[in-house]
Design a protein that fits this description.
heterodimer, A: four-stranded antiparallel beta sheet, 7 helices, B: 339 residues, alpha+beta, Alpha-Beta Plaits, 2 domains, four-stranded antiparallel beta sheet, 7% strand
């Protein structure tokens, strides 16, 4: 589902964020991406989101080489991927409901279907009763859950998360992880970047460990 | 092989059979769906962009007023030229054309000519002055009556005094045509009309008209710049939203649309306000101008910017607003990429 083929990313100025990275995530796999800050976790996710292009090598998503994707095709590609951000990127000029509905509106979903889907996603993250409030009034755990609802409302096949539990206490973090687990169980390929080793150890999942841009654990042979 | 992760997050199971379409009808259904989504986004954008303008009424009105002033200047010059042309036409045709007839024209030929002239649609009124009447009038008014008595023959020609219809005012080409037509009549020796000052006025009005267009072009460019800057600020204010929309798969078109509509509303609003400004100026100044005209025995009444001008102002405002927004959006919104 997600395949990296000797991917390197060098930023202007010479800093090499990723060097010759290769791995393959099967459809429906659940994996963590670990490493110190600066190890290249965010760069890796950005490559999958096409926010960056690799300097060398190729990224294949569901067999499609992202290098060959035309610029105009990027939006349509992104609609098939859900992303949860550490700073959740919520819009504070509209309600929780409108935030979650945004991916459906952007992709031109039939109008009648939107409320049902939005409420189902909010129900799943336990915020159905908060759909009318402005997300700025929510706690950071709740905001993160709104971000998750927005990431899954359009039923992506791939779910990425960048430090989704960054600002949360352990109990809330565990709750969020359970949510990701649930999505994975219905077939979504999940890749979560985190440095919270204590949280992921008991889950027994694949762990891609990055060190200074190199994959040092969790590769395909491991 | 596509998994359906949504099943778990839905409160009710989805009737799968209903959604699955195959073959040509499926493609058509999906195309219809896409088109419906596109149309829907346009409708929503119309609604939300208007709501945004309403949310900041003072700012919106001020932007529109700036555009209105820029558009009102050439528009009022245009209206002024129109009014002067109308005034010029009226003054011109209070004077008449003089048609001199040939000495050898018989009375029958003259009668025929009068019938022909009367039938011309550009001729309003005419009066015939025979050679004898002309002589009598000349003797009475010129003081050279005695001198004329020394001549064997009456040197004065018979004359037709002719008043063209009022619509000929401001149309020198039609006046010239009328003169040529009359001059071609066999009984006619010459046609006299003082066209020089009319042509001078027409030339002046032409300069005014061109000035209005040049001013319009320069200020139109100004409107473009104002619009570009306003939209650039609007884009800057909504940077976060643009980033999120791009991250979740919004196309450039989707990002562009609300700003284009905003530009369109500003332009159309500015155009409407420009028309109101010109109309107001005509109402305020019209009374004085009419009073002045009355003192010169003229029935001239200034006319305001008409419906045609309203359409023109709305159209040019709309186009300029849209174009300015387009320039800003294509320059700035494209640069905003998620980081």
């Amino acid at each position: 589902m997600i395949r990296f083929d000797s991917v390197s990313k060098r930023y202007p100025g010479g800093h090499e964020a990723l060097s010759s990275l290769s791995f393959h995530l099967q459809p429906g796999e659940f994996a963590f991406l670990t490493g110190h800050s600066g190890a290249g976790k965010s760069t890796l996710l950005k490559l999958i989101m096409l926010m960056e292009k690799p300097s060398q090598g190729q990224v294949l998503i569901n067999g499609k080489n992202l290098n060959r994707l035309h610029h105009s095709q990027i939006p349509y590609y992104r609609r098939r991927v859900g992303v949860v951000f550490q700073n959740h990127h919520l819009l504070f000029d509209r309600s929780v409901y409108d935030n979650v509905a945004l991916p459906l509106q952007v992709s031109g979903h039939p109008h009648g279907e939107i409320p049902r889907r939005v409420r189902a996603a909010l129900d799943k993250v336990g915020l159905l009763d908060r759909e009318r409030v402005n997300p700025i009034t929510l706690s950071s755990g709740e905001q993160q859950r709104v971000g998750i609802a927005r990431a899954v409302v359009h039923k992506p096949r791939i779910l990425l998360a960048d430090e989704p539990t960054g600002n949360l206490d352990p109990a809330l973090s565990a709750e969020i992880m359970t949510l990701f687990r649930d999505f994975n169980q219905v077939g979504v390929t999940v890749l979560i970047a985190t440095h919270d080793i204590a949280l992921i150890a008991p889950m027994g999942c694949r762990e891609l460990h990055l060190q200074q841009g190199r994959l040092v654990g969790g590769g395909d042979e491991a | 092989m596509r998994p359906d992760p949504g099943n778990r997050i839905q409160s009710k199971p989805r009737p799968a059979a209903k959604k699955q379409a195959h073959g040509a009808s499926g493609v058509r259904a999906r195309l219809n769906n896409l088109l419906a989504g596109y149309v829907r986004h346009h409708k929503e954008t119309v609604h939300t962009s208007l709501a945004r303008l309403k949310a900041a009424p003072l700012q919106s009105l001020m932007t529109m007023l700036v555009i209105a002033i820029a558009l009102a200047l050439p528009a009022s010059l245009h209206t002024l030229v129109d009014n002067l042309r109308q005034l010029g036409g009226e003054v011109e045709f209070s004077a008449r054309m003089t048609v001199f007839l040939r000495h050898d024209a018989s009375q029958q030929q003259i009668d025929e000519l009068l019938v022909t002239l009367k039938a011309m649609e550009d001729v309003d009124e005419l009066a015939f002055v025979s050679r004898e009447e002309a002589l009598a009038e000349f003797s009475a008014t010129s003081g050279f009556g005695d001198v004329l008595g020394l001549l064997d023959e009456n040197p004065l020609p018979a004359v037709v005094l002719l008043k063209p219809v009022a619509e000929l005012g401001g149309d020198p080409a039609r006046v010239t045509t009328l003169i040529e037509t009359i001059a071609r009549q066999p009984q006619v020796d010459d046609v006299a009309i003082d066209l020089a000052w009319l042509q001078r006025l027409q030339g002046l009005l032409e300069v005014g008209r061109k000035l209005a267009w040049a001013l319009g072009a320069a200020l139109g460019l100004g409107v473009l710049l104002i619009m570009g800057n306003t939209i650039r600020l609007a884009i800057e204010n909504r940077r976060d939203e643009i980033v999120v929309v791009k991250l979740i798969g919004g196309t450039n078109g989707y990002v562009r649309r609300p700003f284009l509509y905003t530009g369109l509303w500003y332009g159309v609003g500015g155009g409407a306000m420009a028309w109101l400004l010109v109309w107001l100026a005509v109402v305020l100044l019209g009374g004085t101008a009419k009073e002045l005209a009355t003192q010169y025995q003229s029935s001239f009444t200034p006319t305001g910017p008409g419906f045609g001008n309203l359409v023109l102002l709305l159209l040019s405002g709309g186009v300029l607003g849209l174009l300015g927004a387009w320039i800003a959006v294509s320059q700035y919104a494209r640069q905003i990429e998620p980081e």
